[in-house]
Amino acid sequence: MTKIKIAIIGCGAISYVSFPGYLNHPNAEIYALCDPVRERAEAAAKQWGIDPKIYTDYEQVLNDPNVDAVELLTPTHMHPDQAIAALQMGKHVSTQKPVAPTVAEADRLAAVDAKTDAMFRVTENFIYYPPLVKAKQLIDSGAIGEMSSMRMRTFLGKALSAPEVNVTESALEWRREPAHNPGGLTFDGGWHKFATAVWLAGEAESVSAIITKTDDFMVESPTAVIWKHVGRDLLGIMEAVNAPEMEIRGKYYPVDDFFEFTGSKGAIWVTRSTGEMHDLPPVMLFKGTETVTFQTPSDWLEGFNAAAAAFIDGIISGQQQMMDSAMARATLQLTLAPYKASDTGMAVDPRTIVK
User: Fold this and answer.
1) Which CATH number is associated with domain 4-123?
2) CA 258, 263, 265: angle at the middle one, nearest 5?
3) What are phi and psi of 147, to 5 degrees?
4) Integer angstrom CA distances of residue 216 from 112, 173, 219, 221, 230
5) For residues 353 and 227, what is the distance between their CA atoms, to the nearest angstrom?
6) 126-303+334-344: what fold?
7) Contact at 8 Å (CB) between 276 and 252?
């Protein structure tokens, strides 16, 4: 089988966890790297022991007929235009989250996506992360009965050791610019939790929130968001706290997450994600007098690996992969709604956010 030739656009911090899934897939080839700083792309190629074409201009990638697909690891505000340009050239597109800074931009992208044969999806590693995949399997099997609550907690702390993903100042610079990034941690990191909620339970309604703004645009702590899922007696709760004096174990960032899914028959804990904060099995099922644990692969990288594999397999099979334009739109609406709710002090229906 001819390999799918991937061009990775952007060789910054997040590329570290994006390369392995493509390098390890038997039907994928990292054919090209593109970064405005040529040395950064060359350094990435050297680090991973590959010899791709090196481009510094995205137009060069689009005009290369050998490129089958692009993985966009670029700032959020660039995603719509870059994705649209690639789709119009017949190239499959996987883009980093969030899909766009506004719903209007996401809709503009979706309109082009609907008219092309190429596949578009947003890379969302949480919905491919093995512990969360296992939790969904248990929920879908009825292991906890009718689910009534999803609780998701994000902890920020300080690194216990040198992280393997080094966030550069340039990566923070655009994130701290409101014109390019509509929110801080609740938008940039909260997206993962909101995507998980949409994946598990569909669209949300009636979002309330308190988002605490700090001197650092990105650090919004403490923050709490609560919402109800459409047509169900199911509440979602997302909390984020910053504990700058608490060390968090983990290879990637000084951040970790904890998930609790509660139903009429029991509860499920997913005890980690980005980090390794808790000395607990990655998945725990509580049935009152019985506790069952599951030792699934739990390195944060596993979600990226599975997401990359799904993209390649989807291109080969012609099957749309998660998350598509519609799912990305619903996630974006749920990610933006807490800001409006916090600012106004009133509950917000995410589905009313269209700009």
Assistant:
1) 3.40.50.720
2) 120
3) -70, 135
4) 36, 11, 5, 10, 34
5) 15
6) Dihydrodipicolinate Reductase; domain 2 (3.30.360)
7) no
pLDDT tens figures, 124-160: 999 999 999 999 999 999 999 999 999 999 999 988 7
- What average pLDDT is seen over the chain? 95
Tell me the chain's radius of gyration from C-alpha atoms: 20
Give the integer Cα–Cα distance in Å for 7 and 34: 7
How many CB atoms sit inside 10 A of residue 269's CB?
Answer: 23
Q: How confident is the model at residue 215 (pLDDT cuts 50, 70, 90)?
A: confident
- DSSP class of residue 253 equals -
- Residue 336: phi and psi, rounded to 5, are -85, -30
Hey, which residues does 69 pair with through a beta bridge? Answer: 6, 92
Burial of 224 (0-12, 13-18, 19+ CB in 10 A): middle
What span, in angstroms and rounded, lies between the C-alpha atoms of 147 and 201?
Answer: 9
Give the side-chain half-sphere CA count within 13 A for 186: 29
Q: How far apart are CA 230 and CA 115, in angstroms?
A: 29
CA distances from 16 to 44, 48, 77, 302 (A): 8, 9, 21, 13
So what's the pLDDT on residue 164? 66
Q: Can you tell me which residue has the tokens 């509660």?
A: 262
Average pLDDT over residues 333-353: 98
Domains in the chain: boundaries: 4-123, 126-303+334-344
pTM of the model: 0.95
Give CA–CA dist 72/70, Å, rounded. Answer: 6
